Amino acid sequence: MPGFTWMDAIPLWAFFPLTVAVVHCVIELGYRLGRFRRDVTPDEKEAPVGAMSAAALGLLAFFLAFTFGFTGARFEERRSALIDEVNAIGTCFLRSQTLPPDQCARIQTGLRKYVEIRMNARTPETMWPAIQESEKIHDQLWAFALRAAETDRSAVTALFISSLNDVIDLHTKRVTFGLQGRLPGIVWLALVVVTVLSMGVLGYLEGLSRSRRSPALIAVVLTFSTILTLVADLDRPTEGTLRIGPQLMIDLGRKLQIENSAP
Fold first, then answer.
1. How far apart are CA 69 and CA 77, in angstroms?
2. How far apart, in whole angstroms, are the C-alpha atoms of residue 49 and residue 208?
3. pLDDT tens sequence across 134-158
4. Which phi and psi angles does 58 have, rounded to 5°?
5. Where are the transmembrane segments (predicted)?
6. What is the rounded CA–CA span in Å between residue 177 and residue 81?
7. CA nearest 184: which of 49, 5, 1, 15?
8. H helix intervals, the chain
9. CA atoms within 13 A on the CB side of 53
10. Cβ proximity of 85 and 176 under 8 Å
């Protein structure tokens, strides 16, 4: 499916426990390797390894800040695009009332169907079919608008066509932000590699310097796993706890139905 990466194969509910398990295993492997090196080469210095560990963790923190900022910005852009689209559809619906009654009825019926499709697209399985159906309705509405322009080239008709064009443009904007504006798979791969290497070096340093594992490692594992899970949640527009709800579109659909039943 367009816009989806290999990371989407991992269910979001399994992301946190899987990350905890992977990070813990990597630290444990590093710890065991560190203890082995300490027994084999007791003269190995901890200071250089500590400096390398600090550098690796600093790079990981920078990388996490970058990805968190990117996904957070995309989340806000998706929310802003939804608000703009709802306003554009409402404006287009109102301006359609300036057209002849038969044309107005067809256009408003199409807009109501369009809103219904948009507010029911809530899962990855329904997202792509909803996009395709929405684009079909765009073609139908644009054909109605061209017929209206052929019979009436007034400024009122031009305003309606402009508002319909805004609806189509904002659809493209939401698709871009929601499906194509996500973290690329190569960035996820780099993040995984940097995390594994950084945690491995941390465990190695722990093995060199201690005979027992520090309880603080548990906090490190949980902290990094939590941040990675938040990044994954923000990057998935159709699932998770941080997705943008369809309430604005639902409210618009109710409003359009009320106007349809008004005398």
1. 12
2. 9
3. 999 999 999 988 888 888 788 888 8
4. -65, -40
5. 49-70, 183-204, 216-234
6. 8
7. 5
8. 12-40, 46-96, 101-120, 124-151, 155-175, 185-209, 216-235, 247-261
9. 20
10. no
* Joined tokens for residue 27: 């630290």
At 100, is the secondary structure helix, strand, or coil?
A: coil
DSSP 178: I
44 or 87, greater pLDDT? 87
In the numeric block, which tokens belong to residue 205?
């340093």
| Cα(248)–Cα(263) distance, integer angstroms | 25
Euclidean distance between CA atoms 97 and 260, whole angstroms = 11
- What one-character DSSP code corresponds to residue 99? S
What pLDDT is stored for residue 245 in this prediction? Answer: 80
**Nearest CA-CA partner of 205 in 19, 18, 57, 21:** 57
Residue 217 burial (CB count, 10 A): 18
* Site of tokens 């079909």: 136
pLDDT at 261: 53
